[in-house]
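#struct-help
A.M.: can someone run this one for me? Single chain, 324 residues.
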Amino acid sequence: MLIVIPGALPAPSVAAELARRLPQQAPTLHAWLQAGAGRAEPFDVREQGCTPYEAWLLQQAGYASQEGLPWGAGLGPLLAAGAAAPGGADPGTASAAEPVWLGELVHLALGTDQAMLLDPSDMDLRAGEAAALYETALPLFEGTGFAAQPLGPQRWRLHLPEGLRPATASPRAVASGSLEGWWQHDAATRPWRRLLNEIQMAWHEHPVNEARAARGVAPVNGVWLYGGASPWPRRAAAAAQVLAELEAPHRAGDWAAWLDALAALDATRLKPLAGRGGIPPGRTELLLLGDDRLARLSLEPRTGLLSWLPARKHDWNAWWSRPV
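D.P.: on it. Structure tokens below:
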């Protein structure tokens, strides 16, 4: 059994304090951490162009890195092909070798000293709003070499001019932090920046954004370009339980809410899986994910006479709350 928990590894600045409170908040998980042999791995979001969870999804789908592109480029065909069966090609792709680019409808928060991208999960973009914004933006694509088609309320499929392959990152990878270093200012991407600027001006004070302001949500004022890999024959993902309760408070940095979510996850999702001795009766793998690292934990059932002997307790805090 594989259990994947996005958001399980907190930010280093708070990890030590949360580790101290974890035994009381999550006694089942604490017992598992003590019982298993864990190993942590660093994850460079800037190099990979995606979050650790997105990287795992790509791995599960059988993605292999493509020359000259970050790992997160695979999110283009992966997210665009929601209707395709495993092993099939993206039904919206004109050519099986054509790169698949995405445009996420986002809010760019511009401060006095930095710009930030709002977490895409907080956009609350409705289908009618998305349709109106697309209708306004569509004429701006004429004669640019770019094209767009909606894939859903918050996402477009983009077609770029021949030969343009910018290195990009997913909106989740860049959200909630400074965009410094993520912007591309080279000459090759100037046409995209020019088109994006025209879209932003067309959406400024758009009726959709005025209505969004009235209901207290951020305006849509940008399109974040990412993806760029070519489709591949996807494989059926291995069976796994993804427990996502910690992901939202982790992304928000709301550690009080994170502790509450952890307690609920432990009581309702993990405890029912525990057998005698507090760990699952069968071999279990845990994949714990954070922003800049991931950890794998192996739990082996103790059978026969071993089940009656005291189990060795591992120093889980050596990897859970400390840099790797």
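A.M.: thanks! The first helix runs from residue 12 to 25.
D.P.: also worth noting: The two ends are 26 Å apart (CA to CA).
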